[in-house]
Amino acid sequence: MRVVKTAKLTACVLFAFCISGCGPDDKKPEETAKAPIKMWVAPNENEEAFWNTMVKEWNKDPAHTPVEFTPIPAASSSEEAIMNALASGTEPDISSNIFIGFASQLVEIGQLEDLSKMSGFNELVNNRQMGKIIPAWQLNGEQHVLPIYINPIVWWWRGDLLKQYGFDHVPTRYDELYQLAERRAADNNGYVIQMTAGKNWWERWFDFIPLYYAQNGGKPYLAGHQATFADPAGQAVLTFMGKVFNSKWSSYDFTAADDPLATGQVLASARGPWDIARYHKQYPEILKTLQIGPMLTEKGDAHPYTFGDSKGVVIFSSSKRKAQAWAFIQWVFNNAEHDRSWLELTGMPPARSDLMSNPLFVNYFEKNPLEKAIASYVDVALPPAATTQTTEIQRSMTQMLEQVIFNHADPAATLDKSAQEINTLLAK
């Protein structure tokens, strides 16, 4: 989910403007009418399998404008590949794998269509049960991204180890974790939780941000070009995280490669559903012990808000086949059977609020209880802030965390400093 560095984005955009009028846009109308819809998709095996099935079925109907799809070209990130394509006039009509921060950048330079103005948009939102989900994806009151999936970030707990320390349920409150940690420390076993996902800026999506969403009832951490997390909720979260590290109940050096949850170094780790398939292959016995729990909060909440690792699909403004591209998108997402296929192939919950009630999905989740427990949080899993400054903002958050972890800095003062840095950045 990396975002292209600002300098590279600016260079690509300037180049794109310099060469406007060249490339695919110069095709004659009759050539354009016959040309296929070009689509780029996330470069991973499971998503490619889904789109391969969809495209083959769509293309069987001679009345449909055919679709050709390819994985997003190789680059240091999908975002960089797309910006390079925009600069050279080789972008597709449609692309999936777009997160809202990158969409903000594309909207700022006028590269995305407002889908809410397309015929049948409201019907699609209603048919796909997205009415409560779609507002969080608005950019300047417009709808440039249709979310495809939402991966709620939740705590994975080792149920076998919880029982070992006298817990017959997953902790939901900070003080419950403290109690568990003290029992663990008394047993001379050390760490209790993987409190941070890592040292990279994007990993704040899996620690501070979901904890903040949970503690403050789903309010944004940015609003009106201002940082809002230097508030009582932010102070509670950062104080909690600081206490865990200062008490040596976690390590900042844990990495995904270590997988301290699988090895039993910790009893809990914040994860998304994508790790289930890996555990099936690598740790099938450990998988049987796992229990899913909500983001921890000060007072405990059975169903708090969290972060949703989520991506969507867009139509580029340069497309000469917007209506045909939109017809294909509608065809895919108006059919709940297609979302069921997506779920089966990728393991990632579709962005719809009826996963726990629609018989199509209920039947699937009855056979996959761990996936069900995770998907039950789709309705409270929020996307990241819609900002063009994602990288810089979350680097400031990372420095904030490190000040508390390593220098034992005062959480309130550290929050204020980070918020001021971000406000200065957003004011430019």
Q: Cα distance, first to last residue?
A: 24 Å
The CATH superfamily of the largest domain turns out to be Periplasmic binding protein-like II
Coarse morphology: globular
Mean pLDDT equals: 91
Largest sheet: 6 strands, mixed
**Class based on secondary structure composition and strand pairing:** alpha/beta
CATH class of the largest domain: Alpha Beta
Strand content: 5-15%
Total E-strand runs: 12
Q: Provide the CATH architecture of the largest domain.
A: 3-Layer(aba) Sandwich
Unreliably modeled segments: 1-32
Spatial extent as radius of gyration: 22 Å
CATH topology term of the largest domain = D-Maltodextrin-Binding Protein, domain 2
Number of domains: 2
Separate helix tally? 19
Helix content: 40-55%
